[in-house]
Amino acid sequence: MGTHAGTGDPGLFTPASVTWQMHGDPMMWVAGVRALYLQALHPRAVRGVLQNSDFRRDAWGRLMRTAHFVGTTTYGTSEAAERAGARVRKIHTMLTATDPDTGERYGVDEPELLLWVHCAEIDSYLHVLRRSGFPLTDAQADRYIAEHRVSARLVGLDPHTVPASREELAAYFEAVRPELAAGPEAHEVDDFLLRPPAHPLLVPARELLWRRVALLAYAALPPYAHELYGRPAPAPAVVTRRLRATGAVLRGIPARLRWQLPPKHILRAVARLGPQARPAPHKVRA
């Protein structure tokens, strides 16, 4: 990767990581929506979200907060990343949810729930980016998963309990499958993602743009997720074509324009470390 022109702190991941290059890709937005769909299939985890936030009014805020956390932990200084992690851990310790069937009250920071949210996110980022044409070898994909033991630690997980390869991640999903279900909360998330509340003037844009993103994210879910939601998806080859086409269009927008969107983590990282810290697919090293 060469040396950094800047003398700033390269952060927890550094420009030498797969994460640094991947997280600058615009398909991360589609991947983030897929993660929400997947996370909603764990009844205990999705209750923790819906019972502690006005998801229907603030889902966009939630997506932006997740994007801000991912941006800060990827491209921020080590101190900023550690601070963001401490803030998330503190919020989680104060939140509980109730199982409506048993009346059981539980903390949203239970390790099994944190692990589910983590794995659903990492799987979604990796799956959507690779399937849409971001060039990664299997070894680099394994490296990406292993790197995210760092983000798992930040949210309060023991890194040694977190999958560190595609094989371990697949085994985790296999083990957790029996616990997954599309309950009322999952359908609430599905309804919301297809038709988020919008100002009347923005409804045409919602139908044209947002709905397309939501449908593509849903289509990119694993087949068992489509079965649980009870909504079919196009054939896998069709979905892959659409992901690649969308990736090609979004990657065609110059990065300097894309990175102007808030919260501008990448621009700040480049200012801190020098121009060669700019993320790009071809910089992923073996």
UniProtKB/TrEMBL annotation:
Name of a matching Pfam family: MPAB_Lcp_cat
GO MF annotations, alphabetized: oxidoreductase activity
Domain of life: Bacteria
Name listed for the protein in its UniProt record: DUF2236 domain-containing protein
Species assigned in the record: Streptomyces argyrophylli
Residue ranges of domain ER-bound oxygenase mpaB/mpaB'/Rubber oxygenase catalytic in the record: 20-251
InterPro entries listed in its UniProt record: MPAB/Lcp_cat_dom
